[in-house]
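Appendix C reproduces, verbatim, an entry submitted by the partner laboratory led by Prof. M.T., so that reviewers can inspect both the input and the predicted structure.
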Amino acid sequence: MRIAMIGTGYVGLVSGACFAEFGVEVTCVDKSSEKIAMLEQGRIPIYEPGLEDLVARHKAAGRLRFSTELAPALEGADAVFIAVGTPTRRGDGHADLSYVFSAAEEIAKLLTHPTVVVTKSTVPVGTGRRLRRLFDQLRPDLEIHVASNPEFLREGSAIEDFLRPDRVVCGVETQRAREVLAALYRPLNLIETPILFTTIETAELVKYATNSFLATKITFINEIADLCEAVGADVQQVARGIGLDGRIGRKFLHAGPGYGGSCFPKDTLALLRTGEMHGVQLRIVDTVVQVNEARKRRMVKKIVDAMGGEVAGKRIAVLGVTFKPNTDDMRESPSLVIVPALQAEGAELRVFDPEGRREGEKLLPGVVWCADAYEAMAGADATVVLTEWNVFRGLDLERARSLVRGPVLVDLRNVFDPERAIRAGFRYTGVGRGSIRPVD
C-alpha cells in the first residue's frame, strides 16, 4: 500500500515512520524545505527516543521518502493523511483549522484518482463533515472518501504507542474508507489490538474526551496533593491506594506543577468551545482548565515560601524545563510560567535540561544554561526540579549538597526520596508529602 503523510511535525513524522514499519510505502510532505532537507540528511527535527533509527532504516529501504512536492506523493496513494498542526486560535480558544483546510484544498486540486483522505490531526467535532462538503464542492468529478483516525501518541513513548496501541479509532462513512484503514492497520491484528470503527463525529470526539479525562485525572491528584500537605498525608501513597482500584487505574495520578504539552491545554480549551457552540456546559472541563493554570502560579509561591519568602538576589538551579521527560517539547510547559515569575522576583536562574535547551533558549531569555545538573547547582541557594528526567533520579545528593550554597531542594515532581535527601543535608519540599518535615 502507499500513503502520503502531510506534515512532518511530531504526529506526521512518527506516524509516517511507523506505517513504514508496517510495510507501507510512505511519502512525508512538508512545505518547510528546511525540515525536508534535515530529514533527507538523516537529521530529526524533534527529539523522540528511537525515531532517528526508525527513520534511517526505512529511508534506506526505500519505504520512507520526504518531499516538499505534494503532487508526486499523491500519485497512486491509497490514502492521504492530514497531520498538520491545530494550535489554539489566538483570542477565543478554538482550534485553528486553517492548516487542515489549506492542506485539504491542495489535495482536492492535485488528486487524479479516487482515494481516502484521513484527518490524523486533532480536530473538533464536525470537521470531517466540513471536509466532505469542501471536497464535494471542489471536486464533484472525483470520489474522495473522508475518514478520521485520531492519534494517541505520548511524547517520549510514541513509537511504542503506535506499534502496540491500546486501540485504534477509525471514523468512517464509506466501505472503501473502512477497507483502506483496516488494511493499513492489519499488522496490529497479530497482537489482537482492538480496532474501533465509528462515525466520523464519534472518532473526533473520542480524541478530545480522552485528553480531557486524562487532564482531569492530573488536576484531581494535584488538588489531593494540596490536601495531603494540609493534613500530613503522602500523595504518592494515596495515588497508589486509589490507582490499584481497577475502575480508576494508576496512570496519570502523579502530582506535580500542572499539565502542559502540545495536547492537553489546547484540547481541553477546544472541547469547551465545542460545547459552547452546541449549547452544552462542560463544567468539569472548565474547572480543570482554571485549576491547572492556577496550579503553575501556586508552584511559584511554593518555591518562594521554601526559600523563606524572598528570592531576590538568590541563585536558583532549575532541573528540567520541558513539559515532560524524553521530549524536547516546551509547549505550555509549567517552566514557561514558573521561570519568568522567579526572574520577575529578582532571582538568578541556572538551568539544565537534557534535551530542552534548543527550544528553551528561545522561550526563556535571561537564564544561564548549564552542561549538567551539577554545574547548575554549583553555588545555588536553592534547587528546583521541574521535569522528572531519569538522569535526575540518579544524582549523587551528597555531591550535590557539597556544591550548593543553600540546602533548599524543591522537588515539584517527587523525584527524590525525601528521607535520603534530608540525610544528604537538604531541606526538602515535595508535592503532597505532608508527612515529611524538612530539617532545620
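The chain has a mean pLDDT of 95. Additional entries are available on request from the coordinating office.
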